Amino acid sequence: MKLLFKLAAKNLIGAGLRTWLNVIVLSFSFLVIIWHKGLLNGWDMQARTDMVNWETGTGQYWQSSYDPYDPFSLTDAHSKIPPVFDTLISKGEIAPILITQGTIYPGGRIQSILIKGISPEQKVLKFPGKLFLRSNEDLPVLIGSKMAGDDGLKEGDLVTIRWRDVHGTFDANEMKVIGIFNTNVPSVDAGQVWVPLDRLQKMMGIEGEATIMVCGKFYSPGKTPEGWKFKSSEELLKTVTDIIKMKSVGGMVLYIILMSLAMLAIFDTQVLSIFRRQKEIGTYIAMGMTRSQVIGLFTIEGSLNSVLAALLAAIYGIPLLAIQAIKGMSFAGTGKAYGIVMADKIFPVYSLGLVVTTIILIMITTTIVSYLPSRRIAKMKPTEALRGKLQ
Amino acid sequence: MENSILISIEALKKHFTTSGGRFTALNGIDLSIRKAEFTGVVGPSGSGKTTLLNIIGSLDSPSEGRAIVLGQSINDLSVKQAALLRRSRLGFIFQSYNLLPVYTVFENVEFPLLLLKLNDGQRRKMVMDSLDWLGLTDKVKSKPAQLSGGECQRVAIARAMVKKPEIVLADEPTANLDAANSHHILKTMVRLNNEFQTTFIFATHDEKVISYLKRKISLVDGKVAKDEITGN
Q1: Best exposed site among A132, A376, B82, B91 by fewest CB in 10 Å?
Q2: Is it the case that residue A287 has pLDDT exceeding 60?
Q3: Domain region containing A120
Q4: A147 and A245 co-located in one domain
């Protein structure tokens, strides 16, 4: 085997330009696959971190009627905060949020919104609730930059807001935008108005009640109180997981195209080699190699393309990938435009597992592609091969 | 004397299936070849010379009859056994040299020794000895493309001789060479035959080669027409 590797390496290098063309194409595939997967990994990590920091926490308790996909459920989706959580709330390990429907009238237009009440003192989410503490407005609100952009709102604007209290009675007031926050998580931004929790409780006439309770990093879930249901972090992050999974599947198409191009080049070279090097094959057999050794030699020759490609990709790829990992890749506005959790800049994350898996995958594929045409050697007559006669 | 018979062929026939039907290349060959012979199988194109050499070299097998080479029946050899026989005991010289183009002269000559799994030191010594016999020590780093036809054929002889095989099979070894190179090559082979007692078997219709043979086996239509000692 060692001999076959030695001979194959010599033959491969000796083939010159043909080898290097294959190696360049294959190294490019290596690089793009690793880069793209790294980018998805980076996005996945960023999206999960942002979701946890801005929306889901490490888990949530939902009032049993609450269904985020059914706005009508909000009418009944509120309950007294169980006393068992009082200490945790004061310690900043749990953040209660009250959610209700409402309408605002920015610039004479009408827009349905969700009004969310959050405690200004909470430390569970990255939400800048402390801004409420600096305001002495009657109805101070915070909105996200996407919401502000869509509705043409800016800090200091007064907008009419209307809501229904617990008895179903409509009420309205002037809200003042006291701050605009920036987040990569559209689900806490688009169509949402944030007010202090106690203010919303008062507006609704349901003091001491909440719709959901977001758990912090240090909270470990215990017994779920009656009338509430616990949602784990994995359940809450399922949408992100699904989006990334979908993107990964989309990425597979790219990988398949790239790999097909590289494999086509190698397959083509192997087929050509076997036709052009018939005399050589005959000579190997005449000198005492078995057909299976010659097949092995040609297969190793083909698969060594992937080894050279990995080395070449490392030479020009490591600096490129490192620069990308440090500087990130700009996706400014993409997340907000499409309503997905995506930072303006994504920093690819390349794990050892990713690199090793990609290399192994490409090597296995290359070996298979190299072996398939080489099997033809088994059917060759050495006497014909020695004369270079096409078989 | 019986012990010195290296090749024994009895009623050997070889048929090929072609588009025009069955073609008989060898039609009942009987012959034996002893150690250190310098023998030529001569005859016109299509007489079966190369087919006979291929069978002796275990690159092909008989359709009928028997061929025993170095005590092994070619009829019964497995693919692996045949490869082992060629690897360790037979040397080949081809009309178009069949050197490996990406290897240097040294590496080409070293190749059979790599298959025999000899160590670096042994290989180096044997290759240099072989190149020395052929006067190629100044060409060790050259590649076949940088050599003349005569030099290429000398490299091919060095490669065939390096492992000191018992039999060297040479198929039209001078066909691509001019007269001067042909004589040079043939004299070298005669010297090696005398020095190492290696049996040389040629397939040829070149008069220059024939003039060096000690025994001439003439084939016509796949049959031995004449088997004569030439007295060289």
Answers
A1: A376
A2: yes
A3: 59-218
A4: no
* A262 in any annotated domain: yes
The reply to whether A123 falls in a domain is yes
Of A7, A288, A386, the CB nearest to B94: A386
Token pair of B228 as six digits: 């004569």
Q: Which amino acid is at A238?
A: K
Mention every residue, 6+ apart, whose C-beta is less than 8 A from residue B22.
B15, B16
* Pair (A43, A122) in one structural domain: no
Number of domains in chain A: 2
How far is it, in rounded angstroms, from Cα B145 to Cα B147? 6
Same domain (yes/no): A88, A155: yes
**Hey, is the C-beta of B22 within 8 angstroms of any chain A C-beta?**
no
Confidence of residue A391 (pLDDT cuts 50, 70, 90): low
Inter-chain CB proximity A288 and B112 less than 8 Å: yes
Backbone phi, then psi, for B220, in 5-degree steps?
-135, 125
Average pLDDT over chain A, rounded to an integer: 89
In a domain, A230, yes or no: no
- What DSSP string runs through A267-302? HHHHHHHHHHTHHHHHHHHHTT--HHHHHHHHHHHH
Burial call A328-365: b when 16+ CB within 10 Å, e when fewer: beebeeebbeeebbbbeebbbbbeeebbeebbeebbeb
Residues A46 and A72 in one domain: no
| A282 chain-B contacts, CB cut-off 8 A | 98
**What is the rounded CA–CA span in Å between residue A354 and residue A361?**
10
* Contact: A15, B100; criterion CB under 8 Å: no
**Cβ of B66 under 8 Å from any chain A Cβ?**
no
A326, A380: one domain: yes
Is the per-residue pLDDT at A211 higher than 90? yes
- Torsion angle of C-alpha atoms A234, A237, A242, A245, degrees rounded to 10: -80
Query: Which residue, A184, A218, A252, sits at the end of a domain?
Result: A218
Structural domain contains residue A26: yes
Same domain, A246 and A199: no
For A367-382, how does the pLDDT look when each residue is reduced to its tens digit (9 = 90+)?
998 898 888 888 888 8
Going by the DSSP 8-state scheme, the letter that residue B144 receives in this structure is G
Residues of A in contact with B117 (CB under 8 A): 3
State the first-to-last Cα distance of chain B, in angstroms, to the nearest integer: 21
Q: Based on the fold, state whether residues A251 and A135 are members of the same structural domain.
A: no
ipTM of predicted assembly, 2 dp = 0.92
Instruction: Please give the CATH superfamily to which domain B36-62+77-229 belongs.
Output: P-loop containing nucleotide triphosphate hydrolases (3.40.50.300)
pLDDT tens digits, A316-370: 999 999 998 899 888 877 777 777 777 778 899 888 988 898 889 889 998 998 8
* Parallel/antiparallel/unpaired status of strands A140-144 and A170-181: parallel
Q: Domain ends where: A155, A185, A218?
A: A218
What is the identity of the amino acid at B129? D
Q: Are residues A31 and A74 in the same domain?
A: no
Q: What are the helix and strand counts (H, E) for chain B?
A: 7, 10
Pair type for strands A79-80 and A209-210? antiparallel
**pTM score:** 0.75
